[in-house]
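Protein modeling request. Please complete all fields; requests missing the sequence field cannot be processed.
Requester role: graduate student
Desired output: 3D structure, token encoding
Chains: 1
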Amino acid sequence: MVDSSKTKSKLLPSSSSSGMIKRLAAVPLLVLLAGLIFEPIKPQPPKICGTANGPPVTSNRTKLNDGRHVAYVEFGVPREKAKNKIIFIHGFDSCRYDTLKVSQELLEELSIYLVGFDRPGYGESDPYPKKTVKTIATDIEEMADNLKLGPKFYVIGFSMGGEAVWSVLKYIPHRLAGAALLGPVANYWWSGFPANVTEEAWNAQLPADKWVVWVAHHFPWLTNWWNSQKYFPSSSVITHDVRVFSPSDLQVLHKWGGPARAAYLGQIVQQGNHESLHRDVIVGFGSWDFSPLDLENPFPNNEGSVHLWHGTEDLIVPVHMSRYIAQQLPWITYHELPTAGHMFLLGEGMGDTIVRSLLGLY
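Delivered output (362 residues):
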């Protein structure tokens, strides 16, 4: 396995953020100290849905063994009649309604039941301060059992939800009929990656995002403050900075917004930013106990397949690490989309194409 220690030592915001460094040096120490004292280092407790001070419960929810609730929304044919069951894992700053758009015609033609769910702390799913890389996989397994989806099901994950699919492949591969990762977030501290690959991906980020990721990895307890303070730029995704969208993203972005999404936009982080957005980056860019490069083929007899989709012009999640994973794991079917950005799944007919591929119809 490649020694990544040199890679990790070079993953510093200063690698291409000299302007930020100068700003930091120019800020009087008193201002920084004042910020640390008065800004919310310790996050406010979440406003849990269904409690006295929390938002109302409006969705279907299932209860896990530890007492937490998971909210979900269903599409396609009834699950008791469906031949193919698909669980969709949403991305960062999203919720159960932000599920892959698959035509009703295809859902009926292929007898598909599709369920989207709120990851912990998002929408109407209970927060989980003890969330780890593993718990998203066990949550999915337990939800599938509660919904009686049977011994095997498919998973599709987008962006931060795509990163979660690696956990599903690691911890519950025996439950999978197939899996698809769409523009999955990569952790720059995963082991086994050559220095040049990780550094290229790292340096393709906006400087502000380097800082957010670096703080989340090295000082997770500062994540809430960093993304709440006003002295330095926080996450470009949280602030909706259009610079993270490629030209092709901008052409389809209207499909992500509009009146339909506006109707539930307020639900996404209604329980608080820390147990949704901030917890995502803390876990996603924290220390993992495995690397995707360690995974073994979950379908040695070709009884299923794993698909990895990534746009070459993705400015939110640079393609470099996905490309390297696909090169090292030949059992992954890799789809690299020229000129496509992060939001390629919004392209005309892409949802149907992704699902047909996953079900082995292409």
